[in-house]
Design brief:
Blueprint: H1 2-22, H2 26-29, E1 34-39, H3 46-61, E2 66-71, H4 78-85, E3 93-98, H5 99-107, E4 121-125, E5 131-136, H6 143-147, E6 150-155, H7 161-173, E7 176-181, H8 185-194, E8 199-203, H9 204-212, E9 216-223, H10 248-259, E10 262-266, H11 272-286, H12 289-297, E11 305-306, H13 307-317, H14 322-340
Parallel strand pairs: 1-2, 1-3, 6-7
Antiparallel strand pairs: 3-10, 4-10, 4-11, 5-8, 5-9
Helix pairs in contact: 3-11, 3-12, 7-10, 7-14, 10-13
Length: 350
């Protein structure tokens, strides 16, 4: 009986704390405190430029909070995540990361991963990347014709997210793309433009000018926001070019991996109450009119993606479901054999 009363008392205390937190604005709640932000991007790349404009909006929401920033892009963000996960209870810190990269590294068991993104307290994502399968300008769009062609997909390395997704899309669409590694970011796009390669999964906002001028075409839309050139036929989606029997949950996995953009998370050391109020502050910052105006002027994709949606996509990417994990691995192996030219099509009846 005492145990029951003890649990009831604890619940009442937690409810009182929660109510107290909700009664305050984020500015009042975090007044006088220090929020540490680790930006898991280069201090000269697109992630840092995004944080520069977003941080101004966040400071307008938290005027009496000291916001300290550090950059750590080592290991595609794994070093920053490891650091955040070692912070003690009572800390106030967030990471600004590519959630997909961290989840892939964990799911594949990469060396140096000492975190569990399943325990992360996601604040929100700040973009839905409008991903599509880009093609060279003269590539035919008839799906039957494409399936009978031997095509080249330029890639950085076999284990990065873009290459894994492209390999799986071979199996899901029946299009034979040979993965050729050794292409850096700008080199992949250039290879399509000059005709040295045929296909490549790309974020639309990064190449819309090339779509506008016809130097690239959209073979099919994978998903995401609405940051597409008007030249893109958005009715021609991945779902319209799937092979019969392509497993829906594997398709969802690929779409999640390609469309989940930059995101903020709090590590386990941050309390649930603090994480809840951080979500309010970051949401308000995302909807700040000055931020929206600057982002629009500079053609920076901006979205408020609630933490529940981020958690749902991360659950897929982390492959916590053994059945989904097996299906994803089967699809990847099929796609790799199609890339090698040793398999004509994937058998999804297994």
């Amino acid at each position: 009986m005492r145990k029951v009363f003890g649990m009831l008392a604890a619940a009442l205390v937690m409810a009182a704390v929660s109510f107290s937190a909700q009664a305050q604005t984020p500015a009042e709640y975090f007044k006088g405190r220090t929020l540490d932000v680790i930006v898991a991007f280069s201090n000269q790349g697109g992630g840092s430029r995004f944080w520069a404009i977003f941080s101004d909006a966040l400071r307008r929401q938290l005027p009496d909070t000291l916001i300290r920033t550090r950059f750590n892009d080592a290991g595609s963000g794994t070093s920053a995540a490891n650091e955040l996960f070692t912070l003690p209870p009572g800390s106030l810190a967030v990471g600004f990361v590519r959630a997909t990269e961290l989840a892939f590294a964990q799911a594949q068991g990469h060396d140096g991963v000492h975190y569990d993104m399943g325990q992360a307290k996601w604040i929100q994502a700040v973009e839905r990347t409008s991903h599509f399968m880009a093609g060279r300008r003269d590539l035919p769009l008839d799906i039957a014709t494409l399936r009978n062609m031997k095509l080249v997909i330029p890639a950085d390395e076999i284990g990065d997210t873009q290459t894994i997704a492209s390999t799986m899309l071979n199996a899901l669409t029946g299009i034979h793309g040979r993965i050729v590694v050794g292409f850096g970011g700008s080199e992949r796009v250039r290879a399509l433009v000059v005709g040295d390669a045929d296909l490549y999964t790309e974020a639309a906002d990064e190449v819309n000018e090339l779509l506008d001028t016809g130097e690239l075409i959209s073979v099919y839309v994978i998903g995401g926001g609405n940051n597409f050139s008007t030249k893109v036929d958005q009715s021609r989606t991945l779902q319209t070019v799937l092979v019969p029997g392509a497993p829906a949950d594997v398709v969802d996995y690929v779409v999640a991996a390609r469309t989940l953009g930059r995101a903020f998370f709090a590590p386990p050391g941050v309390s649930d109450a603090d994480a809840a109020i951080l979500r309010l502050a970051f949401e308000a910052a995302s909807k700040d009119p000055e931020l929206i105006a600057v982002a629009t002027k500079n053609q920076v994709p901006l979205a408020h993606v609630p933490h529940e949606e981020v958690e749902q996509k991360l659950k897929l990417i982390l492959l916590t479901d053994p059945k989904l994990k097996a299906a994803v691995e089967h699809t990847f192996e099929c796609g790799k054999k199609m890339s090698d030219g040793t398999l004509d099509q994937c058998d999804f009846s297994q």
